[in-house]
Amino acid sequence: MTSQPYSSFAVYQSGPLTVIGFGRNRPDRLDLGICRDELTLLLRTTKCQSLAVDLTNVRFVPSGMLGLLATIPKLGVELMVFNPNPEIREVLEITRLDSIMRIETVPVGGMLAGES
């Protein structure tokens, strides 16, 4: 776990595999500029090689957030998305973003679910 506080997302695990989620934040209400800056800082300070974004309980991801996520592989970081709902999964497939990220269904519990 990283000690650096981030306002846009929660860090569930950091290091070569870094896992983030939105906890109680809604991605459609985030300032994308701040989120981008925080994500860049996180990737740089954790020496992240793979970033997993937990979308458990997220109902909607705005296009700007999808664009931000699409830049991650361009930084040399593998991108994974955990537990997107069927609508988000469909958007990822239609936009072909599923070709640049792994989409996985993983067990949910504790920190991954955004619980304290």
Please specify the SSE layout and strand pairing.
Blueprint: E1 10-13, E2 17-21, H1 32-46, E3 50-54, H2 63-70, E4 78-82, H3 86-94, E5 102-104
Parallel strand pairs: 2-3, 3-4, 4-5
Antiparallel strand pairs: 1-2
InterPro entries: STAS_dom, STAS_dom_sf
Protein name: STAS domain-containing protein
Organism: Planctopirus hydrillae
What is the CATH superfamily? STAS domain
Strand proportion: 15-25%
Spatially, the strands of the biggest sheet line up as 1-2-3-4-5
Shape: globular
Q: What's the total number of strands?
A: 5
What does this structure look like?
The structure is a single chain. The chain has one domain (10-113): 2-Layer Sandwich (Transcription Regulator spoIIAA), CATH 3.30.750. The protein is 28% helix and 19% strand. The protein contains 3 helices and 5 strands. The protein has helices at 32-46, 63-70, 86-94, and strands at residues 10-13, 17-21, 50-54, 78-82, 102-104. The radius of gyration is 13 Å and the shape is globular.
